[in-house]
Amino acid sequence: MEKHRLKANVRENKNPRMLRREGFIPATLYGPGSQSISLQVCQKEFSSLPYGSHSHVLELELDDKTTVNILIRSIERKIIKNETLNIQFYKVDMNKLVTVSVGLKYVGLAPAVKAGGQLLELFQEVQIECLPGQIPDNLEVDLTKLEKIDDAIHFKDLNIPNYVKIVNSPDEVVVKAVTSKVKATEETSSATPAASA
Q1: How far apart are CA 194 and CA 185, in angstroms?
Q2: What is the pTM of this model?
Q3: How far apart are CA 98 and CA 182, in angstroms?
Q4: 33 and 71: one domain?
């Protein structure tokens, strides 16, 4: 993926709410061997970044025109107003391994589905470890391996590049072929609110 660039300025001495009203997002830059820096980035510029870039290395251009390689470690949002409240940038060393989450891409048609079954997708993302410059856009999950009901694909079954290590437990189920009845029961259970203690 193309490396995208984002500009950031040292944060003005204003409270976060005022900065956001003026079109800026409060942010923090931190990383090994350096002090954390309070920054602000343009809301419009940040929103224009492709979503996929959020899990890849970005170039952050600072006030003095120097650039640093960073990953977005967290984004705090107010869901109701779709407002970004704060961003945490992590300064990376391009020669050291990092742990990031990337999306799973389900490909192919499962024979078990052709036979009347349904897919129970338990994960949409996977945690991986690799060098910052080698972060893949996604990892593919080959659904053609699900030949019959109750077949499952685990993290250990994924075909991954040799420069990527999966952090999730190898035996965790990523996706499973189930009967329609089982899937309906799973979805009903997950939608039922937990009883308060």
Answers
A1: 16
A2: 0.78
A3: 38
A4: yes
Work out the number of other CB atoms within 10 angstroms of the CB of residue 183: 16
SS (H, E, C) 115-140: CCCEEEECCCEEEEEECHHHCCCEEE
Write out the residue range of the structural domain in which residue 86 sits. 5-91
**Are 131 and 55 part of one and the same domain?**
no
pLDDT tens-digit map of 39-79? 999 999 999 988 778 789 999 999 888 899 999 999 998 87
Question: What Rg, from alpha-carbon coordinates, does the chain have?
Answer: 21
What tens digit of pLDDT does each residue of 153-178 get?
A: 999 999 999 999 999 999 999 999 99
d(CA 86, CA 63): 19
Which residue bears the tokens 């990523």?
Answer: 174
CA distance 107 to 66: 41
Chain centroid to CA 92 = 17
Give SS3 for 37.
Answer: strand
Query: Does 122 share its domain with 80?
Result: no
Q: End of a domain among 52, 70, 91? A: 91
**CA nearest to 61, candidates 52, 70, 53:** 70
In terms of domains, do 26 and 77 share one?
Answer: yes
